[in-house]
TrEMBL record:
Gene3D superfamilies for the chain: Ribonuclease Z/Hydroxyacylglutathione hydrolase-like
Name of this protein: Metallo-beta-lactamase domain-containing protein
SUPFAM superfamilies: Metallo-hydrolase/oxidoreductase (SSF56281)
Length: 195
């Protein structure tokens, strides 16, 4: 079982012609360790993990948290180890798996979803999941691929590559098909629209 809690619910809005934003930060707590077991991932092996902190903003300045993966963009750290998958932001592959972890009840994939920036990634979790006292089967933590649920009017203007954003969103909706999407700057939402 994985329990998801929101450390901070962010926002994204324009005030007096200036864009203001605060990142949503999610903490995924696992009831048993997940381990990396896929030899095809593009980063070195990571030790067993109990927690995952997902943030679309800058890397945390806090001291390393043991047994916790911190995922920001294409950078992944675990304890005092920092991993970079050595993919260039110019790589436009959608859905490339940078990291795969699992245990008997959970599978976690860290995949590329470029568009907002070339280095955007999403964390996909499948299995026995719980959020807000409800059970689910699949979550997508998408960072700035979605700023918030109702960002349709402005997300393209904030994207380095708007066409790539549309393709990555379509991949999340039509291939991943999550129960909930956790955006970069707002509360989670259930997908409604098809791309």
């Amino acid at each position: 079982m994985a329990d998801v809690s929101l450390v901070q619910v962010g926002y994204a809005r324009e005030i007096d012609s200036v864009f203001h934003a605060r990142c949503t930060i999610s903490l995924i707590t696992l009831d048993e360790d997940v381990i990396e077991h896929d030899e095809h991932t593009q980063i070195p092996e990571i030790a067993p993990v109990k927690n995952i902190l997902f943030d679309c903003g800058a890397a945390h300045e806090s001291k390393a948290i043991s047994e916790t993966i911190i995922a920001v963009g294409r950078d992944i750290s675990c304890g005092e180890q920092f991993r970079n998958p050595r993919m260039l932001p110019s790589d436009k592959a959608i859905g490339a798996c940078l990291l795969r972890l699992s245990n008997e009840t959970i599978t976690i994939k860290y995949i590329t979803t470029p568009g907002h920036t070339g280095g955007c990634c999403s964390l996909i979790i499948e299995g026995a999941l719980r959020f807000d006292f409800k059970k689910y089967d699949k979550f997508a933590f998408v960072g700035d691929l979605w700023d918030e649920k109702d960002d349709e009017s402005f997300y393209k203007s904030l994207s380095e590559n708007p066409e790539q954003s549309v393709l990555s969103r379509s991949y999340i909706f039509n291939t991943v098909k999550p129960d909930l999407i956790f955006p970069g700057h707002g509360p989670p939402f259930a997908p409604q629209k098809q791309y």
